[in-house]
């Protein structure tokens, strides 16, 4: 299955309130290199909604993967988190 199809299915599941299924599709897409999916996983793990346990380490991991992929929405979601200290 292609990344775009996985993301579409994940978003469909999320919108219907099935966050556990959404997580599965986002994970597959993120493992294929999708920065968008990695971002969504980071947010899911940060918020811990709908049967997804809050996990700050997983959240940070996926948000950093998203950032590394160039998905700029990740920076916009929490700029302080990604600001490098000098």
CATH class membership: Mainly Alpha
- Secondary-structure arrangement, i.e. CATH architecture: Alpha Horseshoe
CATH superfamily: Tetratricopeptide repeat domain
Largest sheet descriptor: none
- List low-pLDDT spans: none
**Mean pLDDT across all residues, rounded?**
87
Q: What is the helical fraction, as a range of percent?
A: over 70%
What name is given to the CATH topology?
Serine Threonine Protein Phosphatase 5, Tetratricopeptide repeat
What amount of the residues lies in strands? under 5%
Q: How many DSSP helices?
A: 6
What series of H and E elements makes up the topology? HHHHHH
Number of domains: 1
User: What structural class do the secondary elements suggest?
Assistant: mainly alpha
Gyration radius, rounded = 12 Å
Query: In angstroms, what separates the terminal alpha carbons?
Result: 42 Å
Categorize the overall geometry.
Answer: globular
Give me the count of strands: 0
Describe this structure as you would to a colleague.
With 86 residues, the protein is mainly α. The chain has a single domain (3-74), classed as Alpha Horseshoe (Serine Threonine Protein Phosphatase 5, Tetratricopeptide repeat). It is built from six helices and no strands. The longest helix is centred in the last third of the chain and has 14 residues, at 56-69. The termini are far apart. The mean pLDDT is 87.
């Amino acid at each position: 299955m292609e990344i775009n199809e996985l993301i579409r299915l994940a978003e469909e599941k999320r919108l219907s309130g099935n966050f556990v299924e959404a997580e599965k599709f986002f994970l597959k897409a993120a493992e294929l290199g999708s920065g968008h999916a990695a971002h969504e996983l980071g947010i899911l793990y940060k918020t811990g909604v709908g049967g997804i346990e809050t996990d700050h380490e997983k959240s940070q991991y996926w948000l950093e993967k998203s950032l590394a992929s160039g998905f700029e929405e990740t920076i916009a979601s929490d700029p302080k988190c990604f600001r490098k200290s000098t």
